[in-house]
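Exercise 3.2. Students should predict the tertiary structure of the chain below and write it as structure tokens, then compare their answer with the key that follows.

Predict this chain's 3D structure.
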Amino acid sequence: MKLVKMSLVAALLVGSSAFAVENVKVSGDAKLFYLSDDSGSGIFNKDKALGQVAVGLGTSMDISEIVKGNAHLTALSTLGLEGQLVGGVWEGTNGTDDSFWFDALNISADIGNTSLTVGRMALDTPLVWTETWSIAHNTFEAAVVTNKDIADTTIVAAYVGGSNGAVENGNLGWVVANMNTAGNTNFSQFYNGAYTVGALNNSWKPLNVQAWYYNATKVLNAYWVQADLEMDGLQVGAQYVGGKSNADVKNSAFAVKVGYEVKDKFSVAASYSQTGKDAASSKNLSGAGYSKLYTESWWTAIAGNQDTQAMNLTVNAPVADLFDAGIYIVSASDDTATKNELLEATFEVSKSFGNLDTSLVYIYTDADTAVADTDAVNTAIINLAYNF
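Answer key:
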């Protein structure tokens, strides 16, 4: 994990003593993530295990009546696990060295129904987003404006000019994947960023509709539309995404979902998706990482790949007062030359003990191609997080 230098936003926060700083809040967390699989010499063997500790510390403050400052620092260490109990780390390129960086450093202002945030921050849009599955999260250099003057509607406009690339094994969304394959690795040139505008509407309360348009400078144009209906426990959703790169490479996908939920009892959902055929591997909706399609798997990203059909079954339910349980089953295959096939079943139990969040995950993965039938892999993950 490389350190990211302080920006103008950092200087503004450091110099905040010139203002009447009030309402300062401090929060943080400490995490321990462990993973092992049996793809090598057996499960819980250190050569196939990952382990790492992360400590996060964040602060927010009122710089003036309308301006706020936010900062979050993440530090990573193996605490000596590397080479002893584990053979690798979740994030970072050198598990023997500690590292730390600011993954959030921004100022924000609220004026009426309009909010502006500038600096380093997490994002959550369909084609550019912050992934939270790993022990460290990727964030972006961006400027984001939201407005709620229209009843039941939120308008979003953003310019994304950089990424810290924190998630080494993941992805930052389709737009960023394309940016990173066009000579703009990690948005090294801020002016070669991406613009997006979006609208989210909830005028009819059971229905949430969103539409997004993206323009990545010199790379592509893309759009995403989605509608989700929830009424009397019934859940129905539809997604459609399309786009074309400046090299005239197109891609598209659609996904549908139907589910049912009894509050505090259980929820079940089934979904199906199909991606387009006209795409090079570097132009997939996932870019070899995760997508926001309903069908995306819990662990092995595949639903957004080229010419892929995927089916997902998800069940969540509390088990008495003991723990929360989740079952996530994905079956996917593509019609490319390699004929990739995936069957993955994930079983998760989680429980909170006051400020301590715990989860235990078992993953069964059977991935084959037209030329190779590989053995199924069993993976175990233990995650602990203490929030303070």
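Discussion points: The CA atoms of residues 46 and 61 lie 43 Å apart. The two ends are 25 Å apart (CA to CA).
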